[in-house]
Amino acid sequence: MIELYEKYRELIERLYISENDNFCQPHFHRHIELLYSLESGLLVTVNGVSRLMNKGDVAMIDSFDTHSYPNPQKLKSISIVIPIALCPEYKEKTKNLMLSSNFITDSDTCSEILCLIRLIQKHTYNVDGPLYLTTHYSRKDETFINGCIAALMGIILRTIPLVKRTKNQDENLTKDILIYFDEHYSEDLSLDLLAGHFGYSKYYFSKICQKILNTSITKYLNKLRILKVLEDRNCKTLTELAEKHGFNNMRTFQRAFKEVVGITASDYKANKFIL
C-alpha cells in the first residue's frame, strides 16, 4: 500500500482538533497526532502495527510515523494534531529516539489524556477553511493551551518507554529523505553530499526530491530552517538564530523568512513578541 506525505500539513502551524467519525488513508507528516477512540472497533495502523481500538484507547502518532484508520463504520474519535513548535521539550527528549509503542490502553492514563483534551476543547474553537480545518484560541489562553499540550507530552513520555531509533531497510525513501532533512537541516547540505549519502547520482537525486517536495531542495531546506527558527524559544538575536539554524548569511535568511512567513523577520518579531 502506498503511503503519502501529507504536504499541506507542513504548511499549518496551528493546533487541529476534530471530534468526528475521523478517518485517513496511509500517510505521514512532521507534526504529532493523538487519536482518542470514543467507540470500540476502530482499526488503527501505525508503522505497520495494527490494533483494534477499544473505547477509551489512545494511539500516539509521532513525527513521520506512517498511520491510517479507514473507519468504514464511521466510529467516533478525537484527533488532535500538534505542531512540533508547540512541544519543543518533547522533541528534544526524543531526539534520535523513538517510542517503543504507539498505543496506550491503561484506563487511568487514557482518562488523564481525555481530561486534557477536553480542557483544550473548552478553550478553543474551530475554523473551517477552504482546504482544511484549524483550531484557534485567544491570546489570553495561549499559555494555558501550551501547558495542556506539555502535560499531554509528559504523559506520553511517562507512559511509553523510548528506544534507539532503528532504520527499517524497507522504509519508504520519501520518509528517509524527509527525516534526514529534519535531523540535518542546520548543516551545509550540498547536492553532492545528499546524493552520495542516499546512493544516487546528483541529477537523479535532484529529480527524486523535486517530485517528493514539489520544490527545489534549497527552497525546502530554507523553509524548514525558517520553521525551526520560529520554533526556537530561546531569546537570541536574529543573526544568532539564522546561524544556529543553517543560514550562512543574513540576506538569504531575510529573503527566506519573508517568502515563508509573508513579512520580514523584524516585523514578525515586533508583532509576535518572539524571535
TrEMBL record:
Keywords: DNA-binding, Transcription, Transcription regulation. This is AraC family transcriptional regulator. The lineage of its organism: Bacteria, Bacillati, Bacillota, Clostridia, Christensenellales. InterPro entries: Homeodomain-like_sf (IPR009057), HTH_AraC (IPR018060), RmlC-like_jellyroll (IPR014710), RmlC_Cupin_sf (IPR011051). Residues 175-271 form the HTH araC/xylS-type domain. It comes from the Bacteria. GO terms for molecular function: DNA-binding transcription factor activity; sequence-specific DNA binding. Gene3D superfamilies: Homeodomain-like, Jelly Rolls.
